[in-house]
Every structure is written in structure tokens, then in C-alpha cells.
Amino acid sequence: MPYIPPDTLAKIKQIDPYTYLKTYTPSELVRISGNVYRMRSHERLKISNGKWMWWSRGIGGRSALDYLIKVEGYSFLEAAELIMSQASLQPPQTVDKVSTGAWLQHHSFCQNTNSHIFYIGNSGSSRNSIL
User: Which of 70, 61, 65, 60 is nearest to 84 (CA)?
Assistant: First the structure.
């Protein structure tokens, strides 16, 4: 039976599902809004804020390890070994968190309230949600 040192296991458990999927299977992620994603192969599985939830099955978790065990059907050791082998070939790229509202920046062409509403409205928001 393989042995996984406790410090390695702690590192494996720290990898969140978004980071894992974005690094190793980016084509599976479909952005819904903000930092909420769904899976291409499991439409009811949502990923947000370092957690995942498969609504149609009522299961969820906080790590890539949980995801591989509960969704993909790997055993604990298989999932841990898969993450270790992938991380040794290509370390997961962590994504910096963007603070709320960082996307809204003041531009010099926005001289008054109407031009702000026009600018925000053209970014995909409806006029009613702005006012």
C-alpha cells in the first residue's frame, strides 16, 4: 500500500477545485458569472469561492481531492496520486482573488451620470439593475 507523507497530503488537500480544473482541464469550466463556474460534463455542478456543489446529487466539497473522489469516482489513494503526478509535471497555477468592484473603473470619457450609465449599460448590465 502506497504511503503519502503528511506534509504532501496537506498540500494536496489545499488545492481548490477551481485551481485544479483551470490548470489540468480548462475546457471543462464554463463561466456563469463573476467567480461562479459550472462543469461542461456535469451541468448542475457549480464551483465558486473555492468550493464545489453538485446540486442534482446533493454533494459538495472544498478541495480538488474531494472532487476527484466524489465526482470522478477515484479512490482516495488514486486521487492523491493523480494530483501528485500532475503537480510534479505542471504545478497548479493559483489565481489571485480580485476584490469586489475592481472591474468598475472611472474613465476620463465619463463626465456625468448619464455617461456612467451609458458606459455600465454597454458592459452587459441592464439599465434597471444600474438605477
Answer: 65
Evaluate whether 80 touches 88 at the Cβ level (below 8 Å).
Answer: no
**First-to-last CA distance in the chain?**
62
pLDDT greater than 80 at residue 117: no
Quote the pTM value. Answer: 0.66
- Sign, CA dihedral 84-87-93-96, equals positive
User: Superfamily assignment of 6-89 in CATH?
Assistant: Zinc finger, CHC2-typedomain (3.90.580.10)
Residue 93: its pLDDT value, please?
A: 61
Domain boundaries, the chain: 6-89, 98-131
Q: How far apart are CA 130 and CA 61, in angstroms?
A: 34
Picking from 88, 97, 99, the residue whose alpha carbon sits closest to that of residue 23 is 88
